[in-house]
Amino acid sequence: MHALSGVAEVLGLPSRKHDPSPFALMAQIEKGLAVEALDRVAALLAPGDSGFRFDIVPRATLARRKAGGLLSADEGTRVARLARVWSLALDVWETPEAARGFLFRPHAMLEDGRPVDVVIRSEIGAELVLGLLGRLKYGTAA
Length: 142
Description:
By secondary structure, the protein is an all-alpha fold. It is about 65% helix and about 0% strand. The model has no long low-confidence stretch (mean pLDDT about 90).
């Protein structure tokens, strides 16, 4: 698993000197991530695309969530998956622009799907993309 401190930072959770506990992160997601976590992730992955956040949480649902201030556990899990992938993509590609280029460009090993869409779709999709990024990081075929 990629360093949880990077994931927590992307989500805008309070920083700690050491990696946060995986159980603390899971509990925070189950309790409900702040809607601002979605805003942060959307701004990092797709700056200038105000509609990208609705690919993660539908518009009407997000309007309801903003009233309460918290995402559901499922929505928070989706946002945390994106944060995890973004953190590793940034580590591999080294610049936000290059990381976005990878995430938003169709990839043959994902049946020509865009990695970002595959991650949003499911946890299995996220594992596929994380696997690709791991192979890129360590110099094997991807």
